[in-house]
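S.,

Sequence below, as promised.
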Amino acid sequence: MRASKLILGTLLLATLAGCDSSGDFADLQAFMSDVRAKPKGSIEPLPKFQPYEAFTYSAAALRSPFQPPVKIDLVNRQKGSKEIKPDETRIKQFLEGFNIEVFQMVGTLSNEGGMFALVNGAGGVHRVKVGDYLGRNNGRIIAISEAKIDVVEIVPDGEGGWLERPRSLSLKERS
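The prediction came back faster than expected:
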């Protein structure tokens, strides 16, 4: 028992002898002297950031690049009329904020109040009736049948007049 204590003490002394403070710490001393040589409170300034420039998408009202361009026959082109023009004083309906191409007719409803059409688009299914407006080109619903919705749009002719353009939304069958 006494021998094991003697061996343990010898190992402890040998370990402590290895922790001699006279070792070579030149690299640590050089680093510390560099740190002490820097002036106190010298913080690098923050980098200059470029201000954010907002981007406004200005082509929203133009023709979709995914639709084929409309070929216009300049000789046989319809001339607009000054009598036909959209009513700028009326309050716009919700479905006029979307292009008519996003809507699909999905069904009809009828009751004592008349016939209604169901159109899918603009975030859901909407019920419309004759006289409601649909699409961005002042499209007014003029007729609803079991198979289609007839719409008349009022579009500019490019020369200061307006044209009435008929369109139809056909019933979309289940696919």
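The chain has a mean pLDDT of 83.

Coffee later?
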